[in-house]
Amino acid sequence: MFADRAKIYVRSGKGGDGHVSFRREKYVPAGGPDGGDGGRGGDVIFEVDEGLNTLNDYRNAKKYKAENGEPGGKKNCRGRDGRDIILKVPQGTVIKEAESGKVITDMSGDNRRYVLLKGGKGGCGNQHYATSTMQVPKYAQPGQPAKELMILLELKVIADVGLVGLPNVGKSTFLARVTNAQPKIANYHFTTLNPNLGVVNLEGTNGFVIADIPGLIEGASEGLGLGHEFLRHIERTKVIIHIVDAAGTEGRDPIADIYTINKELEAYNPEITKRPQVIAANKIDALYREDGIFCGADASGVTHPIEAIKSEFEPKGIAVYPISAVSGEGVRELLYHVHDMLKKVGNSVTVFEQEYFPDAIDFNSSEPYTVIYDEKNEEYVVEGPRVEKMLGYTNLDSEKGFAFFQNFLKESGILEQLEQLGIKDGDTVRIYGFAFDYYK
């Protein structure tokens, strides 16, 4: 069974507690504190494994926990660090926060290893708290708590080219002809239930990877049929080959079919329809009788379907190539055209940007903050440990990081308090060492 989605619970290790103890040796009647520090909790780490191509390993096991750090001991003995837990995933796996669906990281491109949750730091033993006035500290720091998260794993296949089209238009037959893939082929709808990948080897080129995206139906973008289960796999492709049954062997209008699929792609993700597309008008072998005459030749006023498709889409900049996936006619010309399209697009891989930051403090934290107006300097000042921690988590030089910090100010109620104090566009807001101009 091909698995491209999984929902799992992950938890890092708790930091070990610091220890409280005192030296008790002969001839040392009043030995000082010697409690050791606790060990660090284990991290939750994701790594790309080139040998994997599904998320099958996560279908049954749903909980993954790193090891807790051990507590400190006597004689300044530090507790052992907890072991990390390393979870292997296929390249192209997108990790999301389960409730919001926001992207945490995308295991694609150069991202081969990602620390999702860091283990808690070990607590300090009582040896650290001895002072001239407190020589017998009976306090040790507890280890930091573990972090936990429910996450979604989604595999979005990495391919240069995606094949789309309604069921039974010949995508699997085409893939089997042009690559080393061996998809199952039969004459019924939803034949292909899993994305099939294959490598196209073209003479004089480096070749490219092509993916057969399972057959779509009208309403797929709304989840009908297997809807989103299919559509996610086309999000990374650079070029789209739209295969259509030009002969209308099932009584459908090929032009209407093309518009139907493009409508579903746009409804799911408008960015997909902006990618270069070429139409493969398939099944031209079924357009002619055994004597080689076009099946509609005897009917007056019948337009050849290939010409109809070309006149509809070529003025819009979409090339149309008549092919037969069964006989191979026209396939070579189509593949070289696709290769030229890929050269224009470039080699970059679509990588989804981070939207959720597991290390960030909770927006609903009870830690205090203050929002005041400094009349002397004519600026609004925001301070407090909650805000200071958030600044430490955020890269304000990055557009994504700055937007994340703005969202924190909104969610925590700070922007609302600034407005209550009468802030106007262009006024200055100072947050520790940073000054911002306020604009609503």
Helices, strands, pairings?
Layout: E1 5-11, E2 44-48, E3 63-65, E4 85-89, E5 93-97, E6 103-107, E7 113-117, E8 148-155, E9 161-164, H1 171-178, E10 196-200, E11 208-212, H2 227-231, E12 239-245, H3 254-268, E13 277-282, H4 305-313, E14 320-322, H5 331-345, E15 370-374, E16 379-383, H6 385-393, H7 399-411, H8 414-420, E17 428-431, E18 434-437
Parallel strand pairs: 1-3, 2-4, 9-11, 9-12, 12-13, 13-14, 16-17
Antiparallel strand pairs: 1-8, 2-7, 5-6, 5-8, 10-11, 15-16, 17-18
**Span between termini:** 51 Å
Mean pLDDT: 81
Spans of at least 5 consecutive residues with low confidence: 183-192, 220-228
Largest β-sheet summary:
6 strands, mixed
Structural class call reads: alpha/beta
Rg: 31 Å
**Total helical elements:** 8
Question: What is the H/E order?
Answer: EEEEEEEEEHEEHEHEHEHEEHHHEE
Report the portion of residues in β strands.
15-25%
Helix content: 10-25%
Structural key phrases:
440 residues, alpha/beta, six-stranded mixed sheet, five-stranded mixed sheet, 8 helices, 18% helix, elongated
Q: Could you describe the 3D structure shown?
A:
The chain is elongated, with a radius of gyration of 31 Å. The model is unreliable at 183-192 and 220-228 (pLDDT under 50). 18% of the residues lie in helices and 21% in strands. With 440 residues, it is α/β, with parallel strands linked by helices. Strands 10-11-9-12-13-14 form a 6-stranded mixed β-sheet, sandwiched between helices. The chain has helices at residues 171-178, 227-231, 254-268, 305-313, 331-345, 385-393, 399-411, 414-420, and strands spanning 5-11, 44-48, 63-65, 85-89, 93-97, 103-107, 113-117, 148-155, 161-164, 196-200, 208-212, 239-245, 277-282, 320-322, 370-374, 379-383, 428-431, 434-437.
